[in-house]
Amino acid sequence: MKRILRTGLAIALLLILLFAIYSIVPRVRYIETSYGQSLKKSDVLPPNFQDELRGFVRDTASRMQSAMILHEGNIIFEEGDTKKLINCHSARKSILSLLFGIAQDKGLLRLDETLAELGIDESKTPLTPQEKTATIRDLLMCKSGIFLAAEAEHDWAKNRRAQRGKYQAGEFFFYNNFDFNILGVILEQKTKMSIGEFMETYLAKPLGMQEFRAANVVYNSPWPVPRKTDSDHPVYWIYMSARDFAKIGVLINNKGKWGNKQVVSSNWLTESIHTQTLFSEEVANFYQPYDAFAYSWWLEKDTKTIWADGYGGQFLCIDSTNNLVVLQRNFTGNSLLSSGLFLRDKNRDNNPKSDLLHLYQRTLQQIVKAGL
């Protein structure tokens, strides 16, 4: 009997040890790329002003763990661990918009292709003929007219979902993960590459990203948890460092050009950041500070800024008028343990965009004051 108990205890301890090891294994491994290139730094901001910004970031450490500000493509402020790989969450959608631009530039797809033409459907909840008229362009604008549950959607999406068939494709804006998850499927179908492979080849390498690799794109939940919907189409997550994320903003300010290479056409950027939906006052209040939506980019009309926005405090603010890029990152986990600790944080949803707006507005004042 004692031998059985000892054996059982040994097995239990072994299982606990294996689970403990598994819980700390990173989902995405940090490996510097062979093609990475550092952004240049500039000291245009006075030291006392940088100290002011640094103090502000540290005071908001539970919401803004790293931050960067770039002017004319040069780093003028950097705080926190800007090398750490962090899930972009919904900011992935704006990055995917760039990938669609690159794919269109290469003649791999057309924005007017419909789901019917692409053969996109659902096995358990088949799409209707009306829903299949949605085009790639409709999906990029969040106007597919498809109101089905999707992987990784927020509770507020469930509460705001319209009745199926109520709106035609292109009629009604609904920020629905279904559209974005389908876009990932379409990109892979049309390019014959995974999202990570396409992004590494045609975005990360040309920009000299320092941490991004194809393996940084993870499908479904990063952890073995039950699926929450019957959708056939998986969610995908993009893990990036802050300094690689910053290069996305610089690329847009450079009108799609990096060095001597046109990575994505200026025509695509003009089209993709053009207002497609101007929000009503009620909707604008819900999505503050944004008042419009483009091809998977948020727009703030007063400041003429372009935003990528992700859960947990993943914000990228691009001011092309003043050639500024301001971003913040907040670590939401890269292992079962660190993800669990983030989810236990009562302040995890307290990531106001006002923090980044403060950095942006104070820096803009300083830039204008210095006549830069």
Task: Set out the fold topology.
Blueprint: H1 2-24, H2 47-59, E1 66-71, E2 74-79, E3 86-87, H3 92-105, H4 115-118, H5 136-140, H6 155-160, H7 177-191, H8 195-207, E4 217-219, E5 236-240, H9 242-253, E6 257-258, E7 261-262, H10 266-272, E8 277-278, H11 281-286, E9 292-293, E10 298-300, E11 305-310, E12 314-319, E13 324-329, H12 336-344, H13 353-369
Antiparallel strand pairs: 1-2, 1-13, 3-5, 4-5, 6-7, 8-9, 9-10, 10-11, 11-12, 12-13
Question: What do you see in this structure?
Answer:
With 372 residues, this protein is α+β, with helices and mostly antiparallel strands. It has one domain: DD-peptidase/beta-lactamase superfamily (Beta-lactamase). It has 13 helices and 13 strands. It has helices at 2-24, 47-59, 92-105, 115-118, 136-140, 155-160, 177-191, 195-207, 242-253, 266-272, 281-286, 336-344, 353-369; strands spanning 66-71, 74-79, 86-87, 217-219, 236-240, 257-258, 261-262, 277-278, 292-293, 298-300, 305-310, 314-319, 324-329. It has an eight-stranded antiparallel sheet, with helices on both faces. Strands 3-5-4 form a three-stranded antiparallel sheet. A hairpin with a 4-residue loop joins strand 12 and strand 13 (324-329). The longest helix has 23 residues, at 2-24. It is globular, with a radius of gyration of 22 Å.
